[in-house]
Design goal:
This protein has 413 residues and is α+β, with helices and mostly antiparallel strands. The chain is 20% helix and 39% strand. The strands form 6 sheets. Strands 14-13-10-11-12-15 form a 6-stranded mixed β-sheet, covered by helices on one side. Strands 3-2-1-8-9 form a 5-stranded mixed β-sheet, sandwiched between helices. Strand 13, helix 6 and strand 14 form a beta-alpha-beta unit. Helix 4 crosses helix 7. The model has no long low-confidence stretch (mean pLDDT 88).
Amino acid sequence: MQRGYVIGVELNQHTCQISYCDEGQQEPKTIERIPLVIRKKEQEWIYGEEEEEGIYDLLSLAEKHELIQVGEKTYEGVWLLSLYIQLVLKRFQNIEAIAFTLPYIDEDIVHLLKSVGQKLGVSKEKVYVQDNKESFCYYMFFQQKELWQYESALFYCDENGVQAYMLKKLHMKFENKQDTFIVVDEVANVEWEELSIIYPPKDKEEQKKTDEYFNRFIKSIFHRRLISSVFLIGDEFEKKWYPNSLRTLCNGRRVFQGDNLYSKGAYYTVQYKMNKKRNSFIYLDETKLMEQVYLKFRINGKDTWYPIVQWGTKWYENDRQFEILLENTDDIELRIESLIENSIRLVKVPLENLLNREKYTLRLQVNVIFQDEQTCVITWKDIGFGNFFDSSGFHTQTLIKLGGRDGKFNSLS
């Protein structure tokens, strides 16, 4: 059976970019940027043509739940963005998995894009939504290890200003040795005026001055840092107005310039999550869970702590349902590990009201539901054992309080 397409999609306020792989390819292709605009011509919707009657700012319209009048009809901004994405991806007849990357995300845009993915025939579990910092992380994971042996820098430059990011591995004191934890810090986000730069430079003299100020800016960011590689993205870097700054960037480092890092990073996200044989690395930011909840299982005769809530994920991504078979036992043990506190705590779920039955014929349905970022509720329910045993009616809940976004994330960096 032919494998479907794996696709990464970058969306920003102005454009959409797609990276994908055909079957048998090792490296993704990237489609030229498509303007994020849609218009209706007679009864047909047309995308990507920057015409006066086009509807722009589709991301903002969707985020603000705006209503747009087109002819005699009114359309929701969410619907228009969804239609645009479906039209853009229409060329891919069979999509196996897809990741969307945006400058910023929240719970609403995650739900919207997951629903768009489902309309394209992709299962919800194979639709990923992340911000550009996380895409940078996944992009780097698929590069040569010497490029992120130390820190890696990314500069994004447009007509308004420049943002600078640093990717680095965390050296955790925690006893977990299997996972590599990675963060991407925004170390600068300034407009040209804040740097005393007139941009764009109008002549060679202004260009020289702009280059000089930008060079100082780079040196202030790189001060006392070990940096293995630098990535320059954004249209303004294509204009080559920064020769002296470029020499500073290249001093002992490898420097890359392009515009498809985010869409490729989204593509690599899918590849990583579909390939379970890879070594585990965990991307962390202030929106991710810093605690992991384990349930003790016996696998191949050995007791194993298996994570049912995973750190490095968003709280609203962890709702799940599964079933377990029990031995004769008086309780179930949960283990909660905290990265922030560098601690472990155990929680016991009492089973004294559960009827005794033959070993491995006690079947419980387990539901994990997050009420908010700090509150996880686990429900345990006896669902019987086929035609052999009916349910006893046993039902209990375990409430687990987690740290949530308590302002301590920066202490890890």
